[in-house]
Amino acid sequence: MGVKSLQSKIFSFFVLLLLFVQGVAFWTLYVGNQNQQQQEVSNRLTTAKTVFTELFSSRIEYLAAFSETVSKDYGIKQVFNEDRRSLLVALNNHRKRINADLAMTISAEGVISAQLVSMEQGDGQRKVRSGDEAGVQFRYSDWMMNVDRGHLYAIDHNVYQVSLSPVKVGAKTIGWVMFGFQVDARLATEFMSITGLETDFVVQGNSGWWLVASSSPTADVGFSEKILNNQQIDDQFIAISHQISDDQHLRFGVAMYGLRANFVEVLQEQWWKLLILAVGTLVLSLAGAYWISASITRPVKRLVKQAKIVASGDYNQTINLNDQSELGQLADEINVMQEAVLSREQALSHRANHDPLTDLPNRNFLNIILQTLCQQRDAFAVIQLNLSRLKDVNDTLGHQVGDLVIQELARRLSEAEGFQLVCHLGADEFALLTDSCPSAELEEAVRQCLLNLDAALESVFDYEGLGFQLQVRSGVALYPQHSEKPESLLRMSDIALHHTRKTSQHVQWFNPEQDVNSVERLNLINDLKQAISGDQLVLFYQPKLNLQSRIVTHVEALVRWMHPTLGMVPPDNFIHIAEQTGQINALTRWVIQTALNQYNAWNSGGLDLGIAINISAANLKDPGFYEFVCEAMRTAEVPAGKITLEVTESAVVEDPESAIKLLSRFKERGMRISIDDYGTGYSSLAQLKQLPVHELKIDKSFVQRLSDDQSDQIIVKSTIELAHSMGLSVVAEGIEDEFALEWLTSNNCELAQGYHISRPQAEDILTPWLKDHAVLNSREEAC
Predict the structure, then answer these.
(1) Is the preceding peptide bond at 692 cis, omega within 30 degrees of 0?
(2) Per-residue pLDDT reduced to its tens digit, 531-562
(3) pTM of the entire structure?
(4) CA distance 754 to 542
(5) Which of 7, 413, 493, 770 could form a disulfide with 477 if both were Cys (CB 3.0 to 4.6 A apart)?
(6) CA–CA separation, 145 and 363 (whole Å)
(7) What Rg, from alpha-carbon coordinates, does the chain have?
(8) Are 522 and 581 in contact (CB under 8 A)?
């Protein structure tokens, strides 16, 4: 009797409470619906204006960034003041990258030198033609001095969003480039699709307002004019306007409007849905209240037992009670909780074994599968690959676009045939496991899988008009040929992948020799620091012969590493390591100090030789490098003119402005500057003209085959003539026969070095040779 009374009290309480709550909620909904109509209209209009302003501004920002990028393009600078056709071709190539509707260049005198306009044809297609303003003075000269990133530009009755950027060569402005998107029905339709409001673009001219573009085929300029002037319009419409430009050149605005009934109808439908929902909720709540009040039994022991089962980690068993008491409801809640815990554990397990960006299995999952496959003893291959040029995408377009490229690559890899597992290891690295097959068929199966990969990546990935070619480098390791251990297979495929960068190959199969080199390289990294401070380095010197006097007047200092266990280590094996590990500055300083001491030793022995020292890009970035060199030369009392600093073209290209500034200081100090390996780098003639150098050193690849290759003769001869016309001397390296020596002499090359003259030698061997060579030449001159 007491339980029944308790049920009645609980049910009565819930009924009264629910009736009160639902009554308040219903009245609140009714009053809120009336206010919501006005608020919704106001919010919709404000949101539409905000969306329009942000999107319209983003187009300007996009144009400004693109114009600035184009203005820095070396290709456009080359043809800027050349023939008009070349300029139009270059301008159109850039225009197509963002599908701009207007592109033009303006000369330094303010004359439009080239103009391209994309116009819509009658069939809906767009055609690019040369604009009518080419050769005409640019109307808005104040834009060229204005720092604003965007403007509005009118041609006839068409209006364009434009941005222009100066094209500079050094500090000199040679003109401007300008790109623009047309404000037309396409843009109006786009805004209408986003905001749900009809969009009209209008311009005020001398004869009044005129319609530029609209999303509505029945647009009325007079109606838009009222909206822009904040005049009263029909109550059946809602509208908002935004004046985009009101300067001396152009008054341009947008009017957005729609039928009020459309919004009210939606709110009315929402009102009825809410009313039905409120009634349904009340009915269900009353039923639930009755069911709760009627639920009086569920054995507590069953609940305790089930709680222990859940605590043990078994989530498969549930409580099946037909009891309607509070304990029954609690049992249901325990079941729900059990399902939620299971769901969360599954989600955690998935996250632990899958990459969040691509949702592909990660390294943890890969290790588990590799363990299983190696136990099954079937042959398969591990292919590790990474995406080429992803850093360029991230640096240029941002990491968000880079993530989209990675996701696209993941999708294509997943669709390629022949693979039982595709994993994303992080960043741009992936690992793939081929289908298992007999060992005799494995290599052919892998080759077919690589062909399938090429086919899957062949098509260009398009992002907002920009095309990305998904190119990858792959390293292959085979099971069980290369290893039967999962961790070794991964390491071997990674070694093969790393080797593709050295060989410039897209695919590399693992070779045991690659692993040996990797171990040796690791040992060299650990030993190099001790080599610099432990007197393991030695300088070799290669003579430079004066081709007119046939006397050795200069030498080049070349560092060698006398490793305690490996013996002589050539510079190609450790210079790059020094640059990567940050030890190149210490290494270069040791070379400079040693070379200065050697100069004094030779000078005391009657040998007056200039010494050339190689410096790297890292040295040019060292803030204390200049002071160190000057102090070292001052302490050693070596004349500045006896030291030549050799720097490669690629080192200068990394940071031309800083490199030129530092090299100029060395030149002012009296030291000679030489461009090493000329012809193999990336510098332009315009940049070469600005470099404070005294000589060019022609790379040996152009000199070694002078006797056999007519093309090399043409290149070397033209380089010598170019250097002389710029007041520079020339050094040719790689002289390996008498023909090259005589040919260079006849073509007025100043200095030559190579094995035909002398190999690089240690000081104790080279000094006697230098003295004998000097004596021999003295005797020849006396005769």
Answers:
(1) no
(2) 887 888 999 999 999 999 999 999 999 999 99
(3) 0.44
(4) 8
(5) 493
(6) 55
(7) 39
(8) no
* Backbone CA torsion sign across 60, 63, 69, 75: negative
CA separation for the pair 506, 496 (Å, rounded): 11
Which residue has tokens 């200092």?
557
Query: Which among 619, 756, 145 is positioned nearest to 745, based on CA atoms?
Result: 756
Where does 205-325 have alpha helices with state H? 221-228, 260-294, 300-311
User: Rounded to whole angstroms, how far apart are CA atoms 303 and 309?
Assistant: 10
Q: Strand pairing partners for 558?
A: 540
Residue carrying structure tokens 């007056």: 608
Find out whether 164 and 172 touch, Cβ atoms under 8 Å: no
The Cα 663–Cα 670 span in angstroms is 11
Q: Can you tell me whether residue 736 is helix, strand or coil?
A: coil
> Do 240 and 50 meet the contact criterion of CB atoms below 8 Å apart?
no
Q: Are 398 and 460 in contact (CB under 8 A)?
A: no
Tokens for 97, please give them. 């990258």
Q: Is 266 helix (H, G, I), strand (E, B) or coil?
A: helix
DSSP string, 85-129: HHHHHHHHHHHHHHT-SEEEEEETTSBEEEEEEEEE-TTS-EEEE
Extract the runs of DSSP E, i.e. beta strands, from 347-395.
Answer: 380-387
CA 64/CA 69 separation, integer angstroms? 9
Q: Which two tokens stand for residue 203?
A: 């311009």
* Cα-based distances in Å from 458 to 430, 432, 453: 18, 18, 8
Contact 539, 560 (CB under 8 A): yes
Would you call 535 exposed, middle or buried from its count of C-beta atoms within 10 A (0-12, 13-18, 19+)? exposed
3-state secondary structure of 629: helix
Extract the tokens encoding 278: 């409120």
Q: How far apart are CA 66 and CA 719, in angstroms?
A: 37
pLDDT per position as a tens digit, 449-490: 999 999 988 888 888 878 888 888 999 999 988 888 888 888
Q: Could you check whether the bond before residue 480 is cis, i.e. omega within 30 degrees of 0?
A: yes
Please answer whether residues 338 and 310 qualify as being in contact, where contact means their C-beta atoms are separated by less than 8 angstroms.
Answer: yes
Token pair, residue 189, equals: 């339709």
Q: What angle do CA 155, 160, 162 make, to 5 degrees?
A: 115
Place of tokens 């009086």: 296
Enumerate residues 6+ apart whose C-beta is below 8 A from 719.
Answer: 678, 679, 696, 698, 702, 730
Span 627-646, mean pLDDT?
94
Which token pair is 328?
Answer: 């029954």
Structure tokens at 630: 């000057």
Sorted by sequence, the CB contacts under 8 Å of residue 325 that are 6+ apart come out as: 294, 295, 296, 297, 298
d(C-alpha 27, C-alpha 35), whole Å: 13
The token pair that represents 477 in the structure block: 């390791």
- In whole angstroms, what is the distance from residue 585 CA to residue 174 CA? 39
Helix (H) or strand (E) holding 155, with range, is strand 151-155
Q: Distance between CA atoms of 227 and 239, rounded to whole angstroms?
A: 7
- pLDDT 10s digits, 367-382: 888 888 888 878 999 9
